[in-house]
Amino acid sequence: MKVQGNTILITGGTSGIGRGLAEAFHKLGNKVIIAGRRQALLDEIIAANPGMEGIQLDVQDSAAVTKFTETVAKKYPDLNCLINNAGITKIENWKKGDVDINDVSGIIQTNITSVIQLTLALLPLLKKHKNATVITTTSGLAFVPLVVAPTYSATKAFLHSWLQSIRSQLDGAVEILELAPPYVQTEFGGKEQAEDPRAMPLNEYVEEVIALLKVNDTPNGEVLVERVRDFRQCVTTDQYDKTFSMINSMFQLV
């Protein structure tokens, strides 16, 4: 992926990794459009980054996603990069039966269905451009699941598999990249995550991602910072059990 001269749409662009990437790409001179549920945050970020644009979107509403993609295609015909970054998680206690099917459905709709819907709808537009890229945010948990978040982990594993398939099908017509973050200091998992010293600082993560993209260090279409590579490689290095135990000893059900 080239890191300059793009028109980039980022879902989940109002916080965390999405906002970090949006601001980094904006500083590099790209045209950046962010999408998110909260209009107040969209307005705040746009005001802080003149030239950036925002569109309100709730990815759990399939009808809204359809309308959104139609608007994007008409308003931004030069769109050549889609970053599927919107995502949600929730702790699930299956032992106690503390699992709400509506929460599970919401995670699947946000993390899987909306990603497929957005990509499918915008792919014809992306294909018109020579340097077209789709980046989808998964997680290190796509490779080693977090026991307390089984549905979230499974959605990321689904995306990892799905991305391999469509990458092969498209065969370079559109570059398909998987962004698999480690544990990063954002409020994705609450204030505790944002302040957790075990997590990678957000600015360091974004800087390393941009650096990898600049030199095209994306083997097999995967954007992996150093902190997450052990997760990706633990099966082939015979370290899966050790890695599984390590990550799950950090986060346990109360």
Structural classification: alpha/beta
Can you identify the CATH superfamily? Answer: NAD(P)-binding Rossmann-like Domain
Terminal CA distance reads 43 Å
Largest sheet: 7 strands, parallel
Question: What is the averaged pLDDT score?
Answer: 95
User: How is the largest sheet built, in terms of strand order?
Assistant: 3-2-1-4-5-6-7
- What's the total count of β strands? 7
Please give the structural blueprint.
Layout: E1 7-11, H1 16-27, E2 31-36, H2 39-48, E3 53-56, H3 62-75, E4 81-84, H4 101-126, E5 133-137, H5 150-170, E6 175-179, H6 191-194, H7 202-214, E7 222-223, H8 229-233, H9 240-250
Parallel strand pairs: 1-2, 1-4, 2-3, 4-5, 5-6, 6-7
Helix pairs in contact: 1-7, 3-4, 4-5
